[in-house]
Amino acid sequence: MQLLKNIVTNGLMVLGLSFGLMVSSTAMEHVKPTAQKISKAEAEKVEATKYLAEQGVAKWQYVLSVRYRLGSGVPKDREKHLYWLNKAIDQDYIFAQLEMGQIYEAGDFVRQNKSTAKEWYGKACDGGYVYGCQSYRRLNEQGY
Predict the structure, then answer these.
(1) Could you tell me which residues come within 8 angstroms of residue 74 by beta carbon, excluding any fewer than 6 positions away?
(2) Pfam families from the entry (predicted)?
(3) Which of 20, 24, 57, 136 suits 113 as a labelling partner, its CA being 20 to 30 A distant?
């Protein structure tokens, strides 16, 4: 009986150690990806985003505009940022409308104009975006 107990105990320990080694080696692959894997994955995301934006999908036009604003996977490019942002705005994409309001309010890329910002916030609010309503109300209370 003791022999059977030792065999089972040792077998479970071997299984446990094997499982632990498998999990740790898998985790190491995910924790330390190579720069090449990261850049290839990022390039694939950018290409997919560009493809969908070019197909006229407002959400991806907006996402691409943000990538150009931040330089995320693409070089920073003011003109391309505004181009794709306006494409999304043409389709009444509320997040793009809100961002245009933020651009005018802060004076990023354009001359600061809080009245114009308020108009864009109003459009985002009309589309149902609460933050657009809050921003509209805030500028309205400031007299714009």
Answers:
(1) 46, 67, 68, 80
(2) Sel1
(3) 57
Q: Provide the 8-state DSSP code for 70.
A: H
53-106 pLDDT, tens digit per residue, is: 999 999 999 999 999 999 999 999 999 999 999 999 999 999 999 999 999 999
Residues, the chain: 144
Cα(66)–Cα(117) distance, rounded to whole angstroms? 18
- Tracing tokens 């003791």 back to the chain, one arrives at 2
CA separation (Å) from 38 to 3, 20, 26, 96, 110? 51, 26, 17, 28, 34
Question: Which residue is it, tokens 């705005």?
Answer: 89
Residue whose tokens read 């197909």: 55
